Amino acid sequence: MDTLDYILKKYDITLTENQYIVPIGWSRWRAMPRLFRELGFTKGAEIGVFKGSFTLYLTLFNPKLHLFGIDSWTKYDGYNDNITAELDENTFTEAQTRVSGRNVTLIKATSMEAVKQFEDESLDFVFIDANHDTEHVSEDIAAWSKKVRKGGLVCGHDYVKSARFPFGVIEAVDTWCDTNKIKPLFIWKDRCPSWMYVKM
Ligand SMILES: C[S@@+](CC[C@H](N)C(=O)[O-])C[C@H]1O[C@@H](n2cnc3c(N)ncnc32)[C@H](O)[C@@H]1O
After folding, report:
1. Ligand 1 centroid to residue 17 C-alpha, Å
2. Ligand 1 lined by 62 (C-beta under 6 Å)
3. C-beta 22 within 6 A of ligand 1
4. Which of 16, 139, 182, 186 fits a 20 to 30 Å CA distance from 90?
5. Which helix (H) or strand (E) holds 153?
6. Distance CA 134, CA 80 (A)
7. How far is the CA of 63 from the centre of ligand 1 (A)?
8. Which of 66, 73, 75 is nearest to 104 (CA)?
9. Neighbour-count burial for 26-46, b at 16+ CB within 10 Å, e otherwise
10. Is 129 a pocket residue for ligand 1 (Cβ < 6 Å)?
11. What residues pair up with 47 in beta bridges, in sequence order?
12. pLDDT level of residue 80 (50, 70, 90 thresholds)
């Protein structure tokens, strides 16, 4: 069964004509890694690891996965996220400790440096969760979606815009999907929802 059919069947979704946003009534934490396991995904990348919490979940619930965790683990001009203040030398160490013993390769580099290390269409999925401004998310989607094979999943976090989370993710994702005629866009149920589409 192809990936889109599998997702529609699993979550009992019937698409209406031209439907763009399709809610998935589950939180990403356990359900997304389980979906990846059921789809037989064994190679993926998380862009933006921070302390490794989701990195751990992705591998705990999908033990055959080899996950590449990419993060610069440094403050830089133009990066003012709600977690930026917490970034220091200890953050990388904390991530390393959290995922130790798991099949995870941590790469300490910027997203745009790290993406050069991957062949096109070599990954089953990417999960984009680094700098959340529109420009960076747009750049990440354009670069990392090339690295996902057909039938794989392009995903990311924080499809939200509010006073507390003034992110540019919605704008970047919607523009990308509109320009490239991508639909449906699955949205996971969390306070900061994750987004996901099947690479065709
Ligand atoms: C929101 S946190 C990631 C959270 C993680 N995905 C999770 O779910 O637990 C964002 C991370 O992206 C990293 N980051 C920000 N801009 C980046 C860039 N241009 N390249 C690589 N990493 C970046 C930050 O260092 C930070 O650790």
Report:
1. 36
2. no
3. no
4. 139
5. strand 148-156
6. 13
7. 23
8. 66
9. eebbebbbebbbebebebbbb
10. yes
11. 70, 128
12. confident
Q: How far apart are the first and last CA of the chain?
A: 14
Q: Cα separation of 162 and 151, whole Å? A: 32
For residue 127, the enclosing domain spans 3-10+19-198
Answer yes or no: are the C-beta atoms of 93 and 50 closer than 8 Å.
Answer: no
Q: Does the predicted TM-score (pTM) go above 0.90?
A: yes
Question: What one-letter code names the amino acid at 111?
Answer: S
Cα gap 187→185, rounded to integer Å? 6
Q: What is the pLDDT of residues 12-32, one digit of tens each?
A: 999 999 999 999 999 999 999
Q: Which of 49, 59, 132 to mutate to test the pocket of ligand 1 (most atoms within 8 A of CB)?
A: 49
Task: Compute the distance from residue 72 Cα to the ligand 1 centre, in Å.
Answer: 7
Task: Count how many Cα atoms sit within 13 Å of the Cα of residue 174 in the half-sphere of its side chain.
Answer: 10
CATH value at residue 124: 3.40.50.150
Find out whether the beta carbon of 159 lies less than 6 Å from any atom of ligand 1. no
Is the pLDDT reported for residue 6 higher than 80? Answer: yes
Q: What one-letter code names the amino acid at 140?
A: D
% residues pLDDT > 70 (the chain) = 100
Q: How many domains does the chain have?
A: 1
Letter for the amino acid at 15?
L
